[in-house]
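Everyone, carefully examine this protein record:
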Amino acid sequence: MLISAGIHYPRATPQMWPDIIAKSKEGGAEVIQTYVFWSEHEPVRGQYNFEGKNDLVKFVKLVGSYGLYLHLRIGPYVCAEWNFGGFPVWLRDIPGIEFRTDNAPFKEEMQRFVKKIVDLMREEMLFRGKVVRSSCCRSRMNMETWKVRTASEGRNMLNGLLEWL
């Protein structure tokens, strides 16, 4: 069993991260859990922000420099007492979208964002046991409407994540 601590990197400045991570390690943490806040990283559709307090790669590498692993919680819905559950506000303007359901427009947007995050981690070689040891998607989804209907559908849904973990 691993002991984890949750750190929401956008709630602090990058200058604060080393102290927060060090204190987590001193407190016995072996794994840092962090949400990826979609609204922070894509405030405008197709325009990404990974700078300053949103520098996810810098945060992940810093966690690794302390000898800790990371559990990357991509969401897309994170709740975390964050406005709109971490969804970008522009998402509500997508025609036909229904949040947190088995809805094609929602799943297409979600897949695009998740792929962006996975590709970032892949480019930096932060997966496959390096720093990112685990990940999860679809935090707090309404599972009654998100049932996997076939084994191949389930496999296809998970393939993007399983490739890099």
User: Anything to note?
Assistant: The mean pLDDT is 84. The helical segments are 17-26, 38-41, 56-65, 104-123, 151-164. The longest helix spans residues 104-123. The first strand starts at residue 4 and ends at 6.
